[in-house]
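agent> call fold_tool(seq_1)
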Amino acid sequence: MRKTSYAATFVALLIILVINILSARLPDWLIAKYDIMNVQVTVRYGLMQRCERSIITIPGPSKGGHLEYTDYECRPFPRSVKDKCDDENRLFCALWTSAQYFTELGIGFAAMGLAALLIGVSTHSRRRRVWRAVAGLVILHAVFQLVTFILVTELYRKERFPAFEHAKPGVGYVLNAVSWVSGFAVGIGVIVTGVAADRGHQWAAGNRAYKPIQGC
């Protein structure tokens, strides 16, 4: 493969890795909003955190005026006691925690893909072979991110956690979808370009195309 193809793959994979990290850390995969009397509550659920913002509005001393008090608190999610992981929400907690592990594995494979690219482009002989490892790592990354997406989607769709009844997908959820779709696209692109380079197509292999030895 051309160096430019590897460079483009490196940039694309680096962007995907950044998206993965943001998605895993953002506490807004699912967002639930409630209005209770004079209190507005917004609860954001991430793979690792639950953040709650409460805005309390009370009448002010002046006519037509009002006072607002805001409270914002985050905690690890899910928790065995507060989220009843030892009781009725045991299955939910197990699956949600599995989604955390899968997305971390996906991030690991993306990082390994970047390392393989840096090592593989050092010599011409390595460039001929390393695309297979890169494609495999990128596809594995995309598979694990897709598994995370499926787990969260099923838990949300079937309301496995009571609070999800009022929840809507947030930025973290969307970024995860972008990451695995992009991962599959990059992986397939590397495979197509690598196979074409092995077959001697100049657009993929460059001026030093791999040509089979005749008469052997």
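agent> call fold_tool(seq_2)
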Amino acid sequence: MAPLSTLLGTLALVTSAAAFTTAPLHTHARRLSPLHQLGDDKGGGSAIATPKTKQVTTTVQKQKQESKQKKKFKPSEPDQLNENDFEDAPMYRLYLIGDEGYDQEHVVTRIHEIVEDCSEDDAATLFKAAYQGGEAFMGKYPMEIAETYAEQLTRSDPIIYADVRDDKE
């Protein structure tokens, strides 16, 4: 075992010593390739050879076709899509609640701005009806729209009271 370790140690020293020595510089390079034999002024090199065999690739695509059978209807039958397939949204009533502290100009202006289908004359009529009777019916709307109108009126400064009730009551 000792000669083997001595041999490996010597080999390591020789290899490491050769790695740090300077390599001799050659001032002229040997031209071994036939591409450079014509000289520097000719550009050297031959043309790229073309292969003697031709390579042909063909691709085959298979398409799957789905066949759907159309339902046959008699000419006297109506279309299967009826207008009755959709249900109307449940309607809710919007009420303006009367209050003695209201300023008529403010209430009429806000109702006209918030409620889309209400003119200033209609808003003035609603204000008078709410002032005299305690509340005034403003209209029937889907739930989201009625709640939006009521919330916007309630957020006015000064506050305008409004109530949303189910149409079935």
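agent> summarizing second result for user.
The chain has four helices and three strands. The longest helix spans residues 2-19.
agent> awaiting next instruction.
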